[in-house]
Each structure stands twice: as C-alpha cells, then as structure tokens.
Amino acid sequence: MAQLADVTNEFIREEIEEYIQRPDEIERIVELFARVSPKMQDIAAAIIEGEDDVADELTQQALADGVDALEIMDDGLIAGMSIVGIKFREAYIFVPEVLACARAMKAGMAYIEPILSAAGVESQGTVIMGTVKGDLHDIGKNLCIMMLRGAGFTVHDLGVDVGEDTFIDAVEEHGAPILGMSALLTTTMPNMGKTIEAFIDADLREDVKIMVGGAPVTQEFADDMGADGYGKDALSCVALAKSLMQEVKAESA
Amino acid sequence: MSTQDIAPMTSRERVLAALRREPVDRTPVCNPTSVATVELMDLVDAPFPDANRKAELMARLAATSYTELGFDTVMPVFTIIQESSALGCKIQWEKKDNWPTVRMTEPIWSEPEDIKIPADFMDHPDTRCVIDAIKILRKELGDDVAIIGKTMGPWSQGYHCFGVERFLLMSRDDPDKTKRCLDRLKDLTVAYGIAQFEAGADAVTLPDHATGDLVSGQYYDRYLLDLHTEFVERIPGPIILHICGRTVDRMDSIARTGMSAFHYDSKNGAQESMDVVKDRIALVGNINNPQTLFARGPEEVRKEVYENLDAGIHMVGPECAIPLQTSIENLKEIPLAVKDWHKQHAAKH
Fold first, then answer.
1. Which of A180, B47, B135, B323 could form a cystine bridge with B96, CB 3.0-4.6 A?
2. pLDDT tens by residue, A89-126
3. Those residues with Cβ within 8 angstroms of residue B267's Cβ, 6 or more apart along the chain or in another chain
4. How many CB atoms lie within 10 A of CB A218?
C-alpha cells in the first residue's frame, strides 16, 4: 500500500494531510498521487491552487513532452479536482475557490478535449443536463458538466430555464439514459417534480434515470419528487451518474 | 421572549416590539420575503407578472398575507429584481405561475467604474410601484398591520449586475476591486430603504445573499460586516437581514451588525441559531419551503412552528419566498399553530 511519503509533490502531501480525513479517501488519494508522475502532480497542484495560467502552461508542456492526453486529464486535471471536490464537500473552500479551480481545469482541458475528441474515446454514457424552468442559475450545473465530461460522459447542456418539453425532447433526441436537473431556488425546485410528472405523462419515465441537485435540494426532496438519485455536489454527481449507468446496463442486460 | 401579562397588541405593535426584542402578547407571524401564491393571486385577481409592476395590484396581493392568511405583516416586494430592472438588467417577467428573474447571464457591468446609478432610479416604474404600493397599504390597512419593504444589499445586487460567476470569481481574485463595487452600490441600498420608510414602511428586509452555500463566513466578515453595520446607522428604521442557506457560521458576525432581525433558513436549527445570536438580534423563520410548506401538510407545518417557538425564535414565518404553488391551507396553519402554542404555553403557567 502506498504511503503519503510516496507522493513527491510537497504541496499535495500537505493538502492530503490537512484536508482529507476519511481513511478510505486518504488511501485512495495517496494511491493515486503516489502512482502519477511528478509532472502530473504539478498539474494537479495548479488545479488545486486555482492557477489557470500555470495549468495552461504545464498542460501545453506535458503534451509537448509527449505525455498522453488521457493521462494528463486523468492523472493531472481530474486528480487535482478530486481533492478540490473533497475540500468543497467538507466546507474548507467555497464556490469562488471552486470556480477558480474549474477555470484552471478548463484551461488545461482546452488542449486535451480536441485531442480526445479526435481520437474517438468511447463514451461512458449520455447525460442531458439543465437548470429547471424559472431558474437562471448555472454554476453548480456547469461544474457537474465539467466533471461528468472529465469522467468520460457525453453531456448535452440545455442551459438554464429549461421547460419540461425541452427536457423530454432532448432525452428522446439523444436517446439519453440519464437526465440531470439543477435548481438553486426553493421557489423553482417544484419544477423538478413537474418535469418528472411530464415524463410520466409522456410514458417515458421508465426510459430515463433522473438525477437532481442544487444547493437547497436534499435527498428527501429528491425522493418526494420521484427522482432516481440526488447529488450533493459535482463529485457526487459523477459517482451517481456512474451508478445510474450501471443500473441502466444491468436492466438492459 | 416574555409573553406574560402583556395587553393584547395589534399586529403592527407585536411586530415592532419583536423587532426590538421586547415582550409581546404572542409571537408574531412574519413574512420578510414573499408569501404570494397562485391561489392568492386568483383570490384577489392580482396575478404575476402585473402584481410586480403595478402598485395597486402589488398592494392588493400583498394585503392577502394579513387579510387571508392571518400573518402580522404584509410585504409588497415579492421579488428581488425591482432595483435590477431600474438599473437596466434584462428581466424575464414570466407569467402567473413563475417568478420573474434577472438574466444574470447577460450582465450589465464588468468593472467597478461601470457602475452608474441612473438619475431617474427612484422614478423608474419598477422601483416607483413599490413606493406607491407601500403608500396604498398604509392608507388601506392603517396602523393595524406591519408593512415591510425591501431594499437589496450590494452583494446580491452584484450577482445581478455582474453575473454570479463573475462576481464570485472577482471576490476571490481581487478583494479591492470587489470592495470598490460594493462601495459604489451601497448608496442605492440606503436610498431605496429610506424611500420606503418615508412611504410608510415599518421595517425593510435587506437581502444580501452571502450564503454558506456560496461563500465562507470569512467573506461575510471581509466584505459585508462593516457595510451592514453602516446600513444600520444610515437607514432610519428596523432592518431585517435575509440570507438563504446555511449561515450559522456567520450569525455571530450578523448579530454584531446592529440589525434588528435576521431572517434565517431551515438549513440552520432553531436552537443552534438562538445559541449563537444570544438575544443580540431577533430571529425570523424558518419553516422549510420546498419540503414542508410546498410538499407536506398542516401537521408538518405545525411541527416546525412549534420547534421555532420552543427555541424562543422571535418571529415565525417561511424561510424564504415560498413556491407559488404552495397551498393556502399550509400557510394559514402557521398563525394557527402559533396561537395554539401560546394557549398551551399559557395554560401551563
């Protein structure tokens, strides 16, 4: 089993020591960073620090040095965001800091995405994402989309203020097995339930797994509305999407 | 809060006393944001979006909080967009069953120097109608009920005018620039608050969404503690600060501002909140909107009202503006439960 001392980047070692408490997460993160190269650790550190100019420069340099684009994404950019996600979940950092980290990740992904797209990497599954009718907030949704794409999902972003019919049309058009809805306002949260009812009315509810999230949304509310899952944050959203895809595959097997 | 040996009060007297944290005959039922619903709109023929833009309809719908629901307050400013409209933000006015909202994806400013308050800000139809609605309410309801106005804080106004993402990133990247923005916006908060008191408001709600769902408690101290203290000095009447979400980590700072009350969210326990503020500020809240008022029944509403009263919360009401499809039955349950709790409480003594 890898030890903390096996992580060569001092900043990342300190981050793990200071911000990660759960034994299973310590083990997973230490294993991850002990395995990855110092260059990838540097990229991850830039993500964690929210330094977009550094992430931009290091990603370009790594590609120029011949590092595989998938390795940069998984072991540098996403690995960095995994620590960011834990720090956010545990309230060590808040949305402004996460936005800066996401900005750094976007800087790196700008070089990686075209390469992966051209290479035709197999998708983990298709997800439709949108903020519900009457709600124009999209920060959380956008973070989820970035992380879902990083995890290999094909995501169609419907944007904000999305009505039931638009969600239904998109799910049908793309044959998406997963739909994700976001709401930031307690006044617009009921529109999640209205959308789910619309899927029932259209006789499409069995064809799609529906996940919901947003600052005021809770597991209890998700259950009340008849959703298949609730994600507290972007990391949970990815874990939930993976779990729902497994259900989809099991059901269709 | 003491309720013994107090002569019966009017709703207005009750609310004003609670805002001063003085004894009341019973805990007031207060609505610092909005209890407008589709049912109430239909009842008095004052639907959204017109009820947000025409003073007579605005006043008519606001009055239902007192006349139909039995609350001790009326609040004509259902939205948080009146000022933004007057500043030039694009507004999506929606229809009866949806809230109007600011198109924050199309921000109007990017630098502090861009901030310009139009000379006719107070005369813009969407700010003027609030002033006129307060005057109508005072004339029609007299001194029986407390009228609450609303003036947006500079942090929330920053979201609307700069875009949420850009404003939050600015607050992380450039504190000095952020402070310059807030400083240039603060006079708007003061001026609109004063205008509402002059029109007859008894208190104003000041939404300033530095919520724990978005920023840390340190951000509240860095950017807003002094500003909110300044508002108390410059706005001549009780201010109810409203911040959604988890806020216990900043309630100690909020209690130090001198604000009369803090409107708190159901993400914060009633007792833990009271323990933090220690009677330095009145607390208003915190009946859950989406799960309880919208999706459950009167029994669950009553349970949450009792939890607040047991903790000694000064004024009871929904945690925030309620979903428009909330049932009148659930809303009426709040004052009924408050009265029953006090009867039971009095019988024990």
1. B47
2. 899 999 999 999 999 999 999 999 899 888 887 889 99
3. A216, B212, B245, B246, B247
4. 17
Mean pLDDT of A59-68: 97
Residue linked to tokens 């402070």 = B179
Taking a C-beta distance cutoff of 8 angstroms, is the pair A133, A163 a contact? Answer: yes
The domain segmentation of chain B, as residue ranges, is 29-348
Is pLDDT above 90 for A35? yes
- Pairing relation of β-strands B146-150 and B73-74? parallel
- CB-CB contact of A47 with A39 (8 Å): no
CATH fold of B29-348, please? TIM Barrel (3.20.20)
Residue B83 has phi, psi (to 5 degrees) of: -65, -40
Quote the pTM value: 0.91
**Cβ within 8 Å, pair A224-B295:** yes
Q: What's the token pair of residue A73?
A: 């994404």
What is the rounded average pLDDT for all residues in chain A?
94
Phi, psi dihedrals of residue A131, rounded to the nearest 5°: -90, 140
pLDDT digits (tens, 9 = 90+) for A209-235: 999 999 889 999 999 999 999 998 888
User: A89 touching B, CB under 8 A?
Assistant: no
B171 touching A (Cβ < 8 Å)? yes
Of the residues A182, A186, A195, A224, the best mutation for testing chain B's interface (the one with the most B CB atoms within 10 Å of its CB) is A186
Residue keyed to tokens 């139009």:
B118
Determine the length of chain A: 253
Q: Which residue of A has its CA nearest to B171?
A: A96
Residue indicated by tokens 């919360």: B313
Closest residue in B to A92 (Cα) is B216
Quick one: pLDDT band at residue B1, thresholds 50, 70, 90? low
B284-305: per-residue pLDDT in tens? 999 999 899 999 999 999 999 9
* Amino acid identity at B247: T
Could you tell me how many residues make up chain B? Answer: 349
Which residues are within 8 A (CB) of B199 and not within 5 positions of it... i.e. 6 or more apart?
Answer: B131, B132, B134, B135, B138, B149
Scanning B246-305 for CB atoms below 8 A from A yields: 267, 289-291, 294-295
Question: Smallest Cα–Cα separation from B325: which of B35, B12, B51, B127?
Answer: B35
Cα distance between residue A17 and residue A203, in whole Å: 50
Q: Cα(B321)–Cα(A187) distance, rounded to whole angstroms?
A: 7
Report CA B200 to chain centroid distance, whole Å. 17
Strands B91-92 and B101-102: antiparallel
Closest CA of chain A from B212, distance in Å: 8
Distance CA B204, CA A95 (A): 29
User: CB within 8 A of A68, min separation 6: which ones?
Assistant: none
